[in-house]
Write a structure and sequence with these properties.
Length: 229
């Protein structure tokens, strides 16, 4: 019985983390907004204990800032933060892509290909939420296939802080189509075991993300986010 209770508690924790992470990524909790425990408990239908555990985990990931006298706040980056972060991310993803092209086994390649086709279906349906979920899984799989744990942990800690911004780059139809085309090139490069091509497309992909975010920021379309984002 104790084991069943423990499994249920772990499952609840994972569900709360996943749902709260989605709220942050999709901008339903706006960057810079305080995480209201009472409202979130009601929305997620959980007590404050698992909610606080989830907030602490997301803070450790970098998606939430714990500020003195303010509590938990959704991360909000300045233009300089964004430029600096994507400069590093472009380098990390380029390295991961090049190594993955050399080291990815056939089973992992088949899985990435399958996720790519699922993502293409989501793109066709204009299902941005599922598209982004699969997109993030593909980037994570490429990173893991690089088989460098230092690279992976560094990437995860930095990427977490820009997930909500990366999500918003696909709300422009033309730029979303371009991102999808770049993913097509990634799959081709991985299948060809072409590390140089993979490095090139990963850098291009990340810098396009950066430029789109900066354009949105300067146009005032990033902060604050609307409830429907």
């Amino acid at each position: 019985m104790a084991e069943i209770i423990e499994i249920a508690r772990v499952a609840l924790h994972d569900q709360v983390v996943a749902r709260l992470r989605t709220l942050l990524i999709e901008g339903r909790i706006a960057p810079g907004a305080k995480l209201n425990e009472r409202e979130l408990s009601a929305l997620l239908r959980v007590s404050r204990t698992p909610l606080r555990e989830a907030i602490k985990l997301l803070a450790s990931e970098g998606m939430v800032d714990l500020l003195p006298n303010r509590g938990a706040v959704a991360v909000k980056l300045t233009e300089a933060d964004i430029l600096n972060t994507f400069e590093v991310l472009a380098g990390l993803e380029a390295m991961a892509g090049e190594l993955a092209a050399q080291r990815m086994n056939e089973e992992d390649l088949a899985e990435v290909r399958a996720m790519h086709f699922e993502m293409l279906a989501s793109f066709t349906r204009r299902d941005l939420s599922n598209y982004y979920r699969l997109n993030a899984l593909i980037h994570a799989a490429i990173n893991r296939a690089a088989a460098n744990p230092v690279l992976t942990s560094t990437y995860q800690s930095i990427n977490a802080r820009v997930q909500s911004l990366r999500f918003r780059t696909n709300q422009n139809e033309a730029k979303w189509s371009r991102a999808m085309q770049e993913h097509e090139v990634m799959i081709q490069a991985l299948q060809a075991r072409d590390g140089a091509a993979m490095r090139q497309v990963m850098v291009k992909h990340l810098l396009h993300k950066r430029d789109t975010i900066i354009d949105l920021l300067r146009a005032g379309d990033v902060y604050p986010l609307s409830a429907s984002s």
